[in-house]
Amino acid sequence: MANAVFPVSAAALLAAAPLACAAPAAHGPLPAPAPKPVPAAAAVRSPQLLGVKVLQTLPHDATAFTEGLEVAGDWLYESSGLPGRSWVAAGRPGGAPRARVQLSGRLFGEGITVVGNRLWQLTYLDGVAIERDPVTLAERRRIAYRGEGWGLCNQARNGRRRLVMSDGTDRLTFRDPASFKAIGRVQVKMAGSPVRRLNELECTRDGAVWANVFPTATIVRVDPGSGAVTATVDAAGLIPAGEKTGGASTLNGIAAVPGCHDFLITGKRWPHLFRVRFVPRRRS
Length: 284
Description:
This protein is mostly beta strands. It has a single domain (37-280), classed as 6 Propeller (Neuraminidase). The chain is 4% helix and 47% strand. It is built from two helices and 23 strands. The chain has helices at 10-14, 40-45, and strands spanning 5-6, 48-59, 66-72, 75-80, 87-91, 97-102, 109-115, 118-123, 128-132, 139-144, 152-157, 160-166, 171-175, 182-187, 189-190, 193-194, 198-203, 209-213, 218-222, 229-234, 251-256, 262-267, 272-280. The strands form five sheets. The chain has an eight-stranded mixed sheet with strand order 17-18-19-20-2-23-22-21. A five-stranded antiparallel sheet has the order 1-6-5-4-3, with no helix packed on it. A hairpin with a 2-residue loop joins strand 3 (66-72) and strand 4 (75-80). The longest helix is centred in the first third of the chain and has 6 residues, at 40-45. The chain starts with a strand and ends with a strand.
C-alpha cells in the first residue's frame, strides 16, 4: 500500500523507558570516556585512530537495507532503502517498531533526522526530501532539491539548528531545518585529500559530524567548520563471515546515544545492532 501508515498512539510511543546510558556491557566493562576531538589543524596532518569496543549486541531486522539511523528522545528511527521497498520506522532499539511507514511508489528512502517537531527523510535519486510527523511518521510535505540524497543529521550552530546532508561526494551541505534550503557547504578532506562517498551521518553535541564512508567499514569524524577529518574509526569485523547471510553487506548506520559517549551502529541487512564506544587504537 502506497504511503501506508502502521498506526500507533502518541501515548504508546511516549510510554517507553529511555535508552539508558548505564546499560551493562555485553563484552566486558565500560571503557574510559572517548577522547576529546583534536584541533582541526592537527587533524589535517594526522587524524586520530579509533577502534570499536562492543558494549551490547541487539537484534536488528535483517531485511532492513539501512540508509538512516538516529536516536531522538527514547526512540530509534531507521530508514530502509530500495525502490518500492523503502520504509521508515520508530521503536525501541532491538525491539519491534511501534510505527512504520512505507514510502510511496518507487521512492528510494535514504538518510533521516529529527529536528524539533519535524522528521526529514531524504531520497536517493528522486530529488525530494519528505517532511514527516516524528510521532506517527505520517508525511506532511515534499521539498525538491538537486542532486542525490545520502546521509542527514542536524546540529546547533551559532544558537540555531541546521541540517547537515551528504550526497555521495566529498561535500557536506548545510540546510535550513524549516525550509530545507541550502545555506552553505564544506568539502571534507583528510590530510589534504578529498574524502568521497560520504554516506550516513550523525551529528553529536560536541559539534562533530560522523560519517560512514561507502562502501567501507570506516567511519570518519569531521570538523564541519573546516571540513577536516579529525579521526577515523575502523569498524571492520563486527559481523563474522558466517553470519553474513541473506545479503548482509555494507556498514551503514550510526546513531549517538544521548547523554553519553556510546553509539548504535549497524549495516545493510545486518542481523545485529551494536551498541559501541569508539576507543583509541595504535598506529600500525
